[in-house]
Every structure is written in C-alpha cells, then in structure tokens.
Amino acid sequence: MANERFQNALAKIPQRIPPIWLLRQAGRYYTAYQDLRKKHSFVELCKTPRLAAQTAISPVVEFDFDVAVLFSDLLFPLEALGIGLSYTDQGPKMSWNLNAGNLGKLRSPDKAIKHLEFQREAVAETRKLLSATKSLIGFVGGVWTLYAFAVENSHQGTLFASKRDLSLFHSFCKIMMPLLEMNIEQQLNAGAEIILLFDPAAGALSPWLFRKHVEPYLKNLADRFPKKLLYYSRETQIDYFNFNSLNKLAGLGIDHRWDLIPILTRVSPFSIQGNFDESLLLQDPNIFRNTLLEWLTPIKELREQQTTGWICGLGHGVMPYTPVENVRTFVTLIREVLGAPKH
C-alpha cells in the first residue's frame, strides 16, 4: 500500500510528474479542519487516533495529494519527558524551561515512550483508512528544535540561550535521542513508509555549528533507519549538509531560499522535497496561476533524469488564510504542465 510516484521519487526512478504533498496540508487554511476545531481542541485532534486519522486523510481526498502525513505536533516528545505542555491562542507553552540544574527532572526514555503511544495508534489508524494508492509519512521533531524549545519556550529568533551552553544540548541529546529512535521505530512498525524529521530551528545555527553539533545526531538517526528519514530544516543552505555523510537519508526538505534547479540537477544520494514559496499561495487566484506557471517553466525544460528524486512541495507549510482554490490549482496545474509532452 503506497503511492507509486512517491515511491519512485524515493527510489530515484525517473518520472515526468512528481509526487505532491505539502507541510501543514491539513492545517488552519482548510475548511474541514476548521470545522473539526469547532468541536475539538488541537490536542484532542492529535491524541485521539480516529480524529488524527480523519484530519490527516481529509485533504488527501479533497486535493488528491499523493501522501498523507501523521497529524501531530513536534513538541509531544518534550511532554513525554515530563515538561508540561499546553496550547494557547498565543501558541504552545512549556511549564518550565530546561537548564543544567533541572535536566535530572526529565523522565527516562523507556518511561517517556509510553506517553507517545497515541502517535503509534494514530499512524496505524491513518494507514487503515487511507487509500491503498496513497503513501503515509510519520512525523517527529528534530533534536535541535526540541532542545531550543525546551530551553527558550520558542524556536524562533537568534536562540541565544540555547547556544550559550552547548554542552547542555549534548546532555539533552543523551535522553532525547533514544526516545526519538523508539518513536520512529513505533511509527514505522505501525505503517509509516518514512518519517519526516522536522527541525525548523536548525537555520538559527551557522553552517559550522550545525555540522559540528547537529549533523552527527542526524547521521546517527539516518544510519539507524537507512532510507527511512526525510529531514527538513528552515533557513539552512547547501553548505550546511555533507551529502556523503548523510547519504542514508531518504530525502532532504528545502525551503524557498534554495535555488531549486541547481539542487535538482545535482547528483544527490537522496530525494529532494520542496520548495515553492508558501506565501505566494496567498495571491489572488488569477495572479497565482500565472506565478505558478512561471515557476514551473524552467522545471518543465529539464529532462526527466534531472528531476529524478524530486518530491514537489512548499518551502514550509500552508499558511492560514491561503485560498483553498490556490491549493487545488497547485496540485492540478503541476500535474497538467509537467505531464504534458514536450514539443
């Protein structure tokens, strides 16, 4: 049970039309999601497997995306470790901030994993209800972003407090990494084909700090789960990544700051996912159609071998107030333009 285009992209088999899925494709822009939120809290949607599956599958049916993504949140591993977590109108809030003095308050990974059982159940329920022609991706937070949020109650800005004592980061990783490994394994066993390792705060680090402190943990996870992890970070660039060292990744998600054509035509050991600027989806539908056509023009000119391994998506997630019509146009027009024979 899997989507052929998605599996081809992961295996780097040439194809004219790429698979399409979007970060936050089940999010606040979407009417069906808004209707669910009138009846249920965000936490209820995430922690009730039936509701999580319904939330994840609905946009796949509506827009014919190739892939469904586990509906969850990247911060739940922190809650599982014993840091209180609540969701407010201003965003998620932790009950206390991590520092060297309270690191010992965290639960052991063996105890914490029991508090993430709902994710395994949600993956299994989503796979059961999802069409056999669609793929399913699991979801976990990246270790740097989890650390930054634990320290600062945010993963935005310069993250000075997180960088001030990087020995704390490595102490945190000794606890978090085994938990992430168990969580990833549970989701894969429940039916996820690959796992999205979502690390949006990584771009707050310089390339040097990323390679020194974060990449070794990313490599360990990729080696532990070969070709099963898609890593996404925001505001990073090509110089952050050692492609040879990370060759066991299934894919690399890139934001709209990357130039797509050079990265597609580069020989890469993994697939590339991205990277249309999500803010452009907020344009007037008539303007948006022309914008998308212009973006697609140089991609259309590439040979199929040059787009091998491409998973089409956004630079980040679908933004609130995005016109639903534009999401539909994004999917249909890409398939129409790239699927048409060249003259």
Can you put this structure into words, describing what you see?
The protein has 343 residues and is an alpha/beta fold. The protein has a single domain, classed as TIM Barrel (Alpha-Beta Barrel), CATH 3.20.20.210. It is 46% helix and 13% strand. The protein is built from 14 helices and nine strands. The strands form two sheets. The protein has a seven-stranded parallel β-sheet with strand order 1-4-5-6-7-8-9. Strands 2-3 form a two-stranded antiparallel sheet. The radius of gyration is 19 Å and the shape is globular. The mean pLDDT is 96.
Question: How would you summarize this macromolecular structure in one to three sentences?
Answer:
Helices cover 46% and strands 13% of the residues.
Key features of this structure:
343 residues, alpha/beta, TIM Barrel, 7-stranded parallel β-sheet, two-stranded antiparallel sheet, 46% helix
Got a strand count? 9
**Whole-angstrom Rg:** 19 Å
CATH class categorisation = Alpha Beta
The largest beta-sheet arranges its strands as 1-4-5-6-7-8-9
Strand content: 5-15%
Number of helices: 14
Helices and strands, with pairings:
Elements: H1 4-11, H2 31-39, H3 42-47, H4 49-63, E1 67-69, H5 76-80, E2 85-88, E3 91-94, H6 109-112, H7 117-129, E4 135-141, H8 143-152, H9 160-164, H10 166-190, E5 194-199, H11 207-224, E6 229-233, E7 251-253, H12 260-265, E8 271-276, H13 285-301, E9 310-314, H14 324-339
Parallel strand pairs: 1-4, 4-5, 5-6, 6-7, 7-8, 8-9
Antiparallel strand pairs: 2-3
Helix pairs in contact: 4-7, 7-10, 10-11, 13-14
